[in-house]
Design brief:
heterodimer, A: about 220 residues, mainly alpha, MetI-like fold, about 0% strand, flat, B: about 250 residues, alpha/beta, 6-stranded mixed β-sheet, 10 strands, globular
Chain lengths: ~220, ~250
């Protein structure tokens, strides 16, 4: 069987796996954002105890391998009678993981906004929450896109570890394929190329979004010097 | 227009320290309705801090501030409600960068005063027209000159129908040729009877427009009086020396 023939068999199967990779990636990114945005605001504007909780959360997540986090949820928790399916474990572990990183990305974006923006908003009688919602957040989202693109790309690649808890994502499919056809090189080169293409498309699309949301008159031009 | 008899802003014995440094050492000041008061003094003497203590963007350590008989330093006062009618204009404009000039002026009307979109839009256009920028309503801050930004910032404050306007060095960040257009707007406001407290080094503006010049140094008011008296014949040599120095720059 030549490579082309192999592809006609492998690609549809890999596509099924890819859809599952996507699903896990985007659910985790979504959970991560739901954690990341409030946590970032808590870290910047919250009382001291809140900041401390956020810092501990970030440091624990960033300081441990995502695989350890995943295994703790999937294999570790059942020991205490808390059992999650492979998918749910994936969402919890990857969602928390992404949440920590997104907190840092959003924090960076919020802190890049001049403190005068918050002051001006408060000076016209806005509550702190209103100022965050109408003034700070819309600007932070624009500023966060470049860093956030990294998170998307990294999440897609991280989703490959889910073959270790038998989620049938692309790497799991790949393993089944080469077990059947004994061609690990062709299989993993194919998987690698698929990841590469997907990451390329996502980077391109997010670049478009960034351009689309750019605030007129605030282009970062003349940076060549 | 001469100021009226009723007090709009009452500042009583304000103290504020940053660490070991005492920035305000018991400042008291009354501002009457329709009065234009200029705060001058060397940098680092607490002028901006005093201004920010009025609307509580900076919380004083002790002392009291009333604006129209509402005590802002009372912890039971809803500070957000109180601030709605205290306009503030910043040295660095602080326009909301992601919004057009129109949306900048509308934001408070929509979300603070809860006006409907039509009414807010109409009011905002009126205020932009008042500062001579109705034709720039679709421009983002990044597409405006410094002078235009500051005029939009003034319109944003005016839209809230303030009882007093606080100006924190409104022309200090501007190129010299853009200062005039901002001062012109401020002058018109003063003539319309707006109560104003301005930190500025624009001596010409102080001479022509203000009712009172307050000279601050080392966290306290050292001399105050009508502009003619303070500019031409101050009691303290220190006042004379300082004003002489900044006058020679203008």
């Amino acid at each position: 069987m030549n490579y082309i023939e192999y592809l006609t068999i492998a690609l549809p199967k890999l596509a099924d796996g890819l859809l599952i990779s996507f699903r896990v990636t985007f659910v985790s990114l979504g959970i991560g954002m739901l954690i990341g945005i409030p946590a970032a605001f808590a870290r910047v504007y919250g009382p001291k105890w809140m900041k401390n909780i956020v810092v501990v959360f970030i440091e624990v997540i960033r300081g441990t391998p995502v695989l350890v986090q995943l295994f703790l949820v999937y294999y570790g928790l059942p020991q205490f009678g808390v059992t999650f399916s492979a998918y749910t474990s994936a969402y919890i572990a990857l969602g928390l993981n992404s949440g920590a990183y997104q907190t840092e990305y959003f924090r960076g974006a919020i802190q890049a906004i001049s403190s005068g923006q918050m002051m001006a908003a408060r000076s016209i009688g806005m509550t702190r929450l209103q100022a965050i919602r109408h003034v700070i957040l819309p600007q932070a989202i624009r500023l966060v896109i470049p860093a956030w693109s990294n998170e998307v790309v990294s999440m897609i690649k991280i989703s490959s570890i889910l073959y270790l808890v038998a989620v049938p994502e692309m790497m799991t499919v790949a393993k089944e394929l080469y077990a059947k056809y004994f061609n690990p090189f062709q299989t993993y080169i194919t998987v690698g190329i698929v990841y590469l293409i997907i990451v390329g498309i996502i980077t391109f699309l997010l670049g478009k979004v960034e351009k689309r949301l750019k605030i007129p008159g605030m282009e970062l031009d003349n940076r060549s010097a | 227009m001469a100021p009226k008899k009723n007090i709009i802003v009452k500042i009583d014995n304000l103290h504020k320290s940053y660490g070991a440094e005492e920035v305000l050492k018991g400042v008291s000041l009354d501002i009457y309705e329709g009065e234009v008061v200029i705060l001058v003094g060397p940098s680092g003497t607490g002028k901006s801090t005093l201004l920010r203590c009025v609307n509580q963007l900076t919380t004083p350590d002790s002392g009291h501030v009333w604006v129209q008989d509402v005590e802002l330093t009372d912890p039971n006062t809803n500070i957000d409600t109180a601030r709605q009618h205290i306009g503030m204009v910043f040295q660095s404009f602080n326009l909301f960068n992601h919004l057009t000039a129109l949306d900048n002026v509308m934001l408070g009307l929509l979300h603070v005063l809860k006006q409907d979109k039509e009414a807010a839009r109409e009011k905002a256009m009126m205020e932009l027209d008042r500062v001579g920028l109705a034709n720039k309503y679709m421009n983002y801050p990044g597409q405006l000159s410094g002078g235009q930004k500051q005029r939009v910032a003034i319109a944003r404050s005016l839209a809230m129908e303030p009882v007093v306007m606080l100006f924190d060095e409104p022309t200090s960040a501007l190129d010299p040729e853009l200062i005039g257009e901002v001062l012109e707007v401020m002058k018109t406001l003063a003539l319309e009877g707006m109560t104003m407290l301005c930190v500025t080094h624009e001596i010409g503006f102080a001479r022509d427009v203000s009712h009172r010049i307050v000279f601050m140094e080392h966290g306290d008011i050292v001399e105050q009086g009508p502009p003619k008296k303070i500019l031409n014949n101050p009691d303290l040599p220190r006042t004379k020396q300082f004003l002489g120095k900044i006058s020679s720059l203008h």
